[in-house]
Amino acid sequence: MSPFKIFFFAALLAAVFSFSAADFNSDVNVAWGNGRGKILNNGQLLTLSLDRSSGSGFQSKTEYLFGKIDMQIKLVPGNSAGTVTTFYLKSEGSTWDEIDFEFLGNMSGDPYTLHTNVYTQGKGDKEQQFYLWFDPTANFHTYSILWNPQRIILTVDGTPIREFKNSESIGVLFPKSKPMRMYASLWNADDWATRGGLVKTDWSKAPFMASYRSIKIEGSSCSPSSSWYTQQMDATSQARLRWVQKNYMIYNYCTDRKRFPQGIPRECAPSA
Ligand SMILES: *[C@@H]1O[C@H](CO)[C@@H](O)[C@H](O)[C@H]1NC(C)=O
């Protein structure tokens, strides 16, 4: 092939891959909701809706052992109390691994709670919750999960909100051996979501709708050689993380001594 042809071919491949990396048709299936989940605009937009009879959800076609997934989400506007919008990773079986973003709705004007958790081999109990520093219903914002053998980093618009490090050396389980599928859903959880279940879903406002776009999956089921595989946080990211945790974190299992009277979980020690 002439250099020009090679260049043209490479450019074409790059175009094909970057296009498919942001296409719901190629990356996910609408898994449930009987028509309430819709892929629109040639795969560029996905909407989930919830009414009294059902919510809806979608899932990635592939499972990934490690990777980085970015998703733009615009949450249910107005009175979203009782609703939960999710974006998470989960493996199969009774001793599953899982990494969660769950957005707990609220009454108009009251803040959403971003609930996060990490499960390894079916055991979670590692919740951290945050308020956001913007209105997540006004525009799309990017929520990302990066997970590699050393750490899990959750970011919002590029700002890290949580890092869960591999602390296997001090006996803490870490999710690194089970490939996970990506899931997203909108469902009713008014028995617990808003103010601990006190505020119920207002069905007169249904159907509720959340929108997803610009999905970007860089993942692998074998041993990868991409930048996310070895990524860690630089000093700027560490400073951003501290800013979020100081100003927007509303619950941290690491400081919940009542819940762990035997002592806080090992990975929470400052040296871990
Ligand atoms: C809803 O708003 C109330 C009042 O501001 C707040 O205490 C609560 O954390 C918010 N989030 C949820 C999910 O209840």
TrEMBL record:
GO terms for molecular function: hydrolase activity, hydrolyzing O-glycosyl compounds; xyloglucan:xyloglucosyl transferase activity. GO terms for biological process: cell wall organization; plant-type secondary cell wall biogenesis; xyloglucan metabolic process. Contains at least one intrachain disulfide bond essential for its enzymatic activity. Residues 1-22 form the signal peptide. Pfam families: Glyco_hydro_16 (PF00722), XET_C (PF06955). Its main location: secreted. GO terms for cellular component: apoplast; plant-type cell wall. It is an enzyme of class 2 (transferase). Its EC number is 2.4.1.207. Glycans are attached at residue 106. Keywords: Apoplast, Cell wall, Cell wall biogenesis/degradation, Disulfide bond, Glycoprotein, Glycosidase, Hydrolase, Secreted, Signal, Transferase. Catalyzes xyloglucan endohydrolysis (XEH) and/or endotransglycosylation (XET). Cleaves and religates xyloglucan polymers, an essential constituent of the primary cell wall, and thereby participates in cell wall construction of growing tissues. This is Xyloglucan endotransglucosylase/hydrolase. It comes from Brassica napus.
